[in-house]
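Hallway conversation turned thread

IA: we were arguing at lunch whether anyone had actually written out Glycosyltransferase end to end. Turns out nobody had. So, for the record, here is the sequence (732 residues) and right after it the structure tokens. Reply here if something looks off.
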Amino acid sequence: MASRTRRHGAATGARDGSRRRRLPLRLLLPVLVLVALMAMLMLRGYVHSEILADHRVQPPAATDQVPQKILEGGPVIDARSGRTESLSVPDHRLVLTFDDGPDPTWTPRVLDVLKKHDAHAVFFVTGTMASRYPDLVKRMVDEGHEVGLHTFNHPDLSFQSKKRIDWELSQNQLAITGAAGIRTSLFRPPYSSFADAMDNKSWPVTEYIGSRGYITVVNNTDSEDWKKPGVDEIIRRATPEGGKGAIVLMHDSGGDRHQTVQALDRFLPDLKSKGYEFDNLTEALDAPSAHSPVTGAELWKGKAWIFLVQASEKITDGLVVGLAVIGTLVIGRFVLMLLLSGIHARRVRRRGFRWGPPVTEPVTVLVPAYNEAKCIENTVRSLMASDHPVEVIVIDDGSSDGTARIVEAMGLPNVRVIRQLNAGKPAALNRGLANARYDIVVMMDGDTVFEPSTVRELVQPFGDPKVGAVAGNAKVGNKDSLIGAWQHIEYVMGFNLDRRMYDVLRCMPTIPGAVGAFRRSALEPIGGMSDDTLAEDTDVTMALHRAGWRVVYAENARAWTEAPESVQQLWSQRYRWSYGTMQAIWKHRRAVIERGPSGRFGRVGLPFVSLFMVVAPLLAPLIDVFLLYGIVFGPTEKTIVAWLGVLAIQAVCAAYAFRLDRERMTHLISLPLQQILYRQLMYVVLLQSWITALTGGRLRWQKLRRTGVVEAPGGAVPRQRSQSSDDRRPVA
């Protein structure tokens, strides 16, 4: 984790241009991670395609195009190289065949029974199941059984194109090659039965599959074990009459197969005692093995396929765990917010509530400013309208747009301008602290305006001598745009409702830079504002907690700030916030093992901040990812209902937060769209912050465009419109 920030000097043109050129590269890694995760989910959904029930999906067709010797022949059909041969199994030989596997529960039990009774069989595996359980396919081959193709995801090939048939065969073969290193020449079409059931739809498919080099294997004895008719009935149906040979159809997948396993354990010894042999197909026909080894590129292609499928299974399992975690965190956070914010509101709004003796003495307001010509006049005039006595110090941090001259030209009493070479926001604030006349110091941003009562409301909690800092109520002033409306929801619900909760828990993580107040006597022992992190407001708040000071929230101390109006500006701001928060958590990590106030914050505050500000936002998009997964792969209705349930919980919390802040509910109309789009942007930002942190990268301050249109409600500050500018101090 990078521990020191790079100050943004006045001559930044070359570096800014370089940073803009590198921006796509910075975004590339998180985008690739997202694409990879989505690809893994899609792959998992693909290989988990549902296998349809064992019945034909469309009615049978006529049979006049099927050769009579096929209709009257045996269950093995060889249409390779233009041949039309029908083969039967010799008397007293049985070929057990198992369809639709391998299954992780029942296939091993079937294999165990076969091994116990020294019997071989043929397993017609689907590509989906073989891809998911390759070890079972390998075990089949290693124990002398034969495997055959049963398509990749079990469609009725009679109604598919040749292109789809080729795809089903090649994907099925790819899975078998990756699992066992072989190719097979055996094929059984889904929904097949006896040879006399061949019709004008299925026969052309059999001919085409023969032209691709495969022998089609149907059956002439059906145990109908999928109906679960009972062990005795399965044995009766599987037993051929008069000692004839047969190909017996059974299943090792597709549901509960305990009757199949029990029947097999009785069936094998009973028929062996009657002189039957249980061979695989080529053994029964005295033919060359159906398996041929695969080497070279085809083998590695198959292994790569199996690797990717297995990786998708493990990643998806991890994402499911993450979804469970985020579900617990989201619900827990919402419950805590609703409960504790209500407690906070009732406590501070009860009649006669006071923090202590009224605070009436003057306070110093520090306004760090870098290229704030568009906003600074509105900011200063809003302070002059304050109903609490203030001294205003504007610290011009090396501005090049005349910010300091604008303030000086206003000629206002109790307003001082301090100029310094560009050194960053923490240095500017520390310079202001050194020149402040009063112990209580209010800090705000140069693009923010206060209401007349803001300073008074902000400093009243200092009537309690235990309070070292106060967080105000930052609000979005430019909320008419869609992005502004989304941020308005976030500020009211995600920030201010959180602050009420953290106030009650006594672990407020951040005094917002837009509106906060501090005791100078609390700041000086901890070294003032530190430039160790990009989130100096979070850093100093955590340091105050560790020093034993109480940090509270003043809901009526409202400040109106201009939120970013474009995705790029929003990205820059939130990237810095996220990364800075991680830096602050890392910096104060030792609090977890310390004693006293520091230990309390470390064991209560840091876990809460880490869970709710870092882990939960990182995992929250899993809700939307699994919404997409569920819509594509099912169960669609349950997935949509679950997602709407989460959205309903968020809507309830948002409505409650708006009610507490006395905001109009109309802005909540855009909440569903915010959850779908805005949250994904915040997720990518946080992911990029994680990557920057883990790779030890460094991040500079970002400059954001401002228009200077924000004013406090009631028209206390003259509205001033101007064109957008690239000028922006390197702090937000």
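OS: looked through it. Residues 1-25, 51-56, 715-732 have pLDDT under 50 and may be disordered.
IA: good, adding that to the notes. The longest helix spans residues 296-349.
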